[in-house]
């Protein structure tokens, strides 16, 4: 039966049942799983069958649903005894019989599709085979009847032939970076560039048909870069015992240093003016600027082939190239001191400007605070004046028709007075019972308090009389007795108690013997009476 259960479960999964991998037999089935399996099978067998695959929580709805399933199975020709109890309270044997019947009723196409492998590769192969079969069996269409190779087939537009094909040409496309991470902080200028100036990806290539190739190339480059980074991290990054951020920063610094050294060494081989400029440069940006100036100067100094030939032809033989005198160490030191002094002077000027700006900022902040306070005060005054203006405007609007407005105002006042009178009468109607109930409650509370006061007064008098009596007894007690007399009295009481205990201990055996003899006597008496009666 285990093999049968395995086949049944595999077929049900192919039909659409989402069972867990841990379910390997019908013993693991529950009523909900059986209902889902039956519903899935009936949907395949009967396309018009409409029933939810999940069992409802209400018991009455479960009964109705299971009764519907039982009727559907009977209409299909199920010979066994079936009802709502078959799905809810039946045994594994009945479930197996029912599921085998439903699987036998499945269409042959569904069974064949369920028997075939469902891997991604097999699905792709089947789709390719279906497309090729459809292309072979379809009628031939002349090229001039197809625009860009498009043809309508089975209600869908498809591309056919090579008319719509073009070369694979990619261009560099850029997309916003870091916008998907909410925690990342992106500068406002970058966000402004992304939202206002950066073109959409489909509009970046010069030719629109190169969009797909550009996206594929961008994705391939990102995948290759990620794979290279993972390989480098697994081989070198893990051995460095650094985090990914630290390793990237270290690699960036090392690359920057190496590039600086190479540019410096290449520029030192140039002219003395470029070397002097590089001596004052300390960062990569200055070196790059010097390198760019050198290249631009070189470009400006270049000429055509005819100009070079003319210069060589008419050059003087006695002309001797000018030699550049190298600066001594003292001159270099003096130049450095002058540069330091000029930089210090610039620093002092910038510091003074910064202090002045800071002072101006503080003044501006104070004035802005004053302006804000004044604005708030002015806003309050504006609100008051607006209210007064509204009142005056309404009054002014009423002046042209003063008599009519006065009459309306009097009617309004009279109506308000009448309404106030009615409300007062209603309030008196409600207020009378409330006052009476409150007075009754207060009178009852006062009565309870008075009775309680009497009880407390009586109890106080009793306590006072008891106190006086105790004071009198205390005064009558002899005050000559000492602690020794009380101790002696306690010892006498203890001795009497010990003596009584010994007397009781001596009397217990005698009492026990007497009780035993009395019981024996009563037993014999009862036995003799019983014999005489019999």
Automatic annotation (TrEMBL):
Domain CCDC22 N-terminal: 1-107
Superkingdom to which the source organism belongs: Eukaryota
Gene Ontology terms, MF aspect: cullin family protein binding
Domain CCDC22 coiled-coil, residue spans: 126-508
Keywords for this protein: Coiled coil
One Gene Ontology term from the biological process aspect of the record: positive regulation of ubiquitin-dependent protein catabolic process
Coiled-coil ranges from the UniProt annotation: 333-360
Family, per entry: Belongs to the CCDC22 family.
Name of protein: Coiled-coil domain-containing protein 22 homolog
Native species: Geodia barretti
């Amino acid at each position: 039966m285990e093999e049968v259960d395995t086949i049944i479960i595999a077929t049900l999964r192919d039909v659409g049942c989402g069972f867990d991998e841990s379910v390997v037999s019908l013993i693991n089935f529950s009523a909900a799983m059986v209902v889902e399996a039956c519903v899935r099978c009936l949907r395949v067998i009967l396309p018009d069958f409409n029933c939810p695959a999940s069992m409802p929580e209400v018991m009455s709805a479960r009964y109705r649903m299971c009764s519907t399933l039982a009727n559907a199975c009977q209409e299909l020709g199920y010979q066994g005894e079936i009802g709502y109890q078959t799905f809810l309270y039946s045994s594994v044997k009945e479930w197996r019989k029912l599921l085998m019947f439903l699987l036998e009723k499945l269409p042959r196409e569904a069974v064949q599709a369920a028997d075939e492998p469902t891997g991604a590769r097999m699905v792709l192969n089947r789709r390719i085979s279906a497309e090729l079969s459809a292309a072979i069996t379809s009628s031939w269409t002349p090229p001039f009847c197809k625009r860009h190779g498009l043809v309508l087939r089975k209600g869908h537009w498809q591309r056919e032939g090579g008319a719509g094909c073009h070369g694979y040409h990619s261009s560099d496309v850029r997309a916003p970076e870091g916008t998907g991470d909410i925690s990342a902080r992106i500068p406002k200028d970058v966000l402004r560039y992304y939202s206002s100036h950066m073109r959409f990806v489909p509009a970046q290539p010069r030719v629109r048909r190169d969009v797909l190739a550009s996206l594929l190339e961008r994705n391939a480059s990102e995948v290759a870069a990620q794979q290279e980074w993972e390989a480098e991290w697994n081989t070198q990054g893990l051995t460095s015992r650094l985090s990914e951020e630290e390793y990237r920063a270290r690699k960036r610094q090392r690359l920057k240093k190496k590039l600086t050294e190479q540019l410096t060494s290449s520029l030192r081989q140039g002219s003395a003016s470029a070397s002097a400029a590089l001596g004052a440069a300390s960062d990569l940006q200055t070196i790059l600027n010097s390198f760019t100036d050198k290249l631009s100067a070189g470009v400006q100094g270049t000429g055509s082939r005819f100009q070079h030939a003319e210069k060589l032809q008419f050059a003087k033989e006695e002309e001797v190239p000018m030699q550049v005198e190298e600066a001594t160490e003292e001159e270099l030191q003096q130049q450095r001191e002058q540069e330091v002094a000029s930089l210090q002077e610039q620093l002092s000027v910038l510091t003074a400007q910064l202090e002045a700006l800071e002072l101006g900022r503080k003044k501006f902040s104070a004035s802005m605070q004053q302006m804000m306070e004044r604005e708030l005060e002015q806003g309050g005054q504006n609100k008051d004046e607006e209210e007064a203006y509204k009142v005056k405007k309404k009054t002014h609007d009423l002046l042209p028709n003063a008599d009519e407005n006065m009459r309306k105002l009097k009617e309004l006042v009279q109506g308000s007075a009448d309404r106030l009178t009615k409300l007062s009468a209603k309030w008196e109607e409600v207020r009378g019972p409330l006052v009476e109930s409150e007075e009754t409650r207060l009178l009852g509370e006062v009565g309870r308090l008075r009775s309680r006061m009497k009880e407390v007064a009586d109890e106080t008098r009793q306590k006072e009389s008891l106190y006086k009596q105790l004071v009198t007894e205390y005064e009558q007690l002899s005050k000559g007795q000492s602690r020794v007399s009380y101790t002696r009295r306690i010892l006498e009481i203890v001795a009497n108690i010990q003596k009584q205990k010994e007397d009781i201990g001596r009397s217990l055996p005698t009492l026990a013997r007497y009780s035993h003899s009395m019981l024996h006597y009563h037993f014999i008496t009862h036995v003799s009476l019983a014999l005489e009666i019999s």
